[in-house]
Write a structure and sequence with these properties.
- The protein is an all-alpha fold and about 110 residues long.
- It has one domain: 10k-s Protein, Hypothetical Protein A, Chain A (Orthogonal Bundle).
- Helices cover about 60% and strands about 0% of the residues.
- Helix 2 packs across helix 4 and helix 3 crosses helix 4.
- The termini are far apart.
């Protein structure tokens, strides 16, 4: 019983996510909220870049200098469409995963 209690106490809580992939998918599909979708995707990208820039983590996304913001949003939209089974998960993690798969660092 003590081992079970210790194991449960050591299990980390999943990170808090304010928006799910379903929320993001909906905003990305609706014309009037696509700006929200774009801003969210760019915010996650910028957060990942900032964490890498200050040395907290290695870069996981490597973008071409000619990359357009719209390409990032299109990549995430396609990932959400192709993986409906994960859209209940946190939106920020899904964005990071989509971008990491599409634009991996060498």
């Amino acid at each position: 019983m003590l081992l079970l209690a210790l194991a449960l106490a050591a299990t980390p809580e999943p990170p808090l996510s304010f928006f799910s992939g379903n929320d993001l998918h909906q905003h990305c599909q609706e014309t009037e909220t696509q700006v929200w979708c774009l801003a969210y995707v760019l915010g996650v990208n910028d957060a990942l870049a900032s964490v890498a820039a200050v040395g907290v983590a290695k870069p996981i996304i490597c973008l071409s200098p000619t990359m357009q913001a719209r390409q990032l949003m299109d990549t995430v939209k396609r990932h959400l469409e192709d993986h409906p089974e994960t859209r209940h998960e946190g939106a920020s993690g899904l964005v990071a995963l989509a971008l990491k798969k599409a634009f991996p660092c060498p």
